[in-house]
Design a protein that fits this description.
Number of helices: 9
Shape: elongated
Distance between the termini: 69 Å
Mean pLDDT: 83
Order of helices and strands: HHHHHHHHH
CATH superfamily of the largest domain: Tetracycline Repressor, domain 2
Low-confidence stretches: none
Largest sheet: none
Helix content: over 70%
Number of domains: 2
Structural class: mainly alpha
CATH class of the largest domain: Mainly Alpha
CATH architecture of the largest domain: Orthogonal Bundle
Length: about 200
């Protein structure tokens, strides 16, 4: 019996996930078949099933990877001295540059998942679980800012987090609604919107 090399297994899993993300970004969740993913990754279906049992399991792993990166970013942001400036700065990182292929793939993947969640119970569970995790991160961030007097104390953290997530998801649809949209100026407006929404009122 062959001994499993955990390092090589993890590396190959990452290669398959990267191939799957490219396929989904290009063809959509429904259009990206297991055969397509295998071809992109340069492996056979039989080989793939040593790592993942289904497309849904691949999507679960991709979602977990994204959440891990986002969690790390929020941890860094919460160490800053100004909560709103940290959040606006995070948005500003994307201004004035063309999104990288991986970033475009992630945006497409998020939209695909939101559409698929309504008709695929498995994807629905993945979306709801990941959304709950993201809301939790935002709630912690908002409450931390409120304790430091940097975010309006009258805002309900849970409702505010949900609204922010909706705004962020909506930004992903702008290039779909209008391919000629000025994303840099749109991000400027998003920063203004968030600053005005979260900042304490002058009377607080």
């Amino acid at each position: 019996m062959r001994t499993l090399d955990p390092v090589r297994h993890a590396e190959k899993s990452q290669e398959i996930l990267a191939a799957a993300a490219r396929c989904i970004a290009r063809d959509g969740f429904r259009g990206a078949s297991i055969a397509d993913i295998c071809e992109e990754a340069g492996i056979s279906p039989g080989h793939l099933y040593h790592y993942f049992t289904s497309k849904e399991e691949i999507l679960t792993a991709l979602t977990a990877m994204g959440l891990e990166r986002i969690s790390a970013r929020f941890a860094e942001m919460m160490q800053g001295h100004d909560a709103i400036a940290a959040l606006i700065g995070e948005i500003g990182r994307h201004k004035g540059r063309k999104p990288e292929p991986r970033e475009r793939a992630v945006s497409r993947l998020v939209l695909e998942m939101l559409v698929e969640a309504d008709r695929n119970p498995t994807i629905g569970r993945i979306v709801r679980k990941s959304s709950a995790t993201l809301r939790g991160l935002l709630v912690d961030f908002i409450e931390s800012g409120q304790r430091r007097g940097q975010i309006d104390p009258g805002l309900d953290p849970a409702i505010t987090a949900g609204m922010l997530l909706s705004v962020f998801d909506g930004m992903r649809t702008l290039p779909i609604r209008d391919p000629a949209v000025d994303l840099s100026r749109s991000l400027d407006m998003l920063q203004v919107l968030i600053s005005r929404f979260l900042s304490p009122s002058p009377t607080d």
